[in-house]
Amino acid sequence: MTEPAARPTEDPGTTLDHLAERIEDLSRVIARQAATIERMVDSAKTRAEQDRAGADLPLVVELFALHADTAACAATAQSRREREAFDAITTRVERLIVGRGGSLVAPRPDAPFDALTMEAADVAKTDDPAADRTIDSLVQPGLIVSGRSLRPATVVVRRYL
């Protein structure tokens, strides 16, 4: 019978060097996999947010129309009790709009005019140069969803002439 060939004895330093290289290789692979998983999770979150915003968009637009209707009813109510009831509904509808990712644009008087979120329905003359291009009054609020203006606020803008 033949005896098995004797294995050459490796230098322990060489073995440790090979082991260190393999550990470094595995560390790089794990880091790449972790980065890939993070990108996939971020992509899934972004997609879910976009899907949610897209799915709620028709609802937010309808809620905005309901908000305008209830505000008009409050403004034309015959009694204080009716006005308070319509104001309460308007407030609740506004909360629903905000909860679904929308926000109302309702600039107050003296706020600067913003052409991205507002539309001038009329112009009011002013003698004050500092009041040029500021809001005189709000005609109807606007709607922003996901940073995009869907309905500009209708306002009266002051102009220095």
Stretches where pLDDT is under 50 for at least 5 consecutive residues are: none
Largest sheet: 3 strands, antiparallel
Q: What would you call the quaternary organization? A: single chain
Total of helices: 2
Describe it.
With 161 residues, the chain is of the alpha+beta class. It folds into two domains: 14-100; 101-161, Head domain of nucleotide exchange factor GrpE (Nucleotide Exchange Factor Grpe, Chain A, domain 2). Helix content is 52%, strand content 22%. It contains two helices and six strands. It has helices at 12-75, 80-99; strands at 102-105, 118-126, 135-140, 142-145, 148-151, 153-160. A three-stranded antiparallel sheet has the order 1-4-5. A three-stranded mixed sheet has the order 2-6-3, with no helix packed on it. The protein is elongated.
Task: Fill in the keyword field for this structure.
single chain, 161 residues, Nucleotide Exchange Factor Grpe, Chain A, domain 2, three-stranded antiparallel beta sheet, 22% strand
Short note summarizing the structure:
The chain is an alpha+beta fold. It is 52% helix and 22% strand. The strands form 2 sheets. A 3-stranded antiparallel sheet has the order 1-4-5.
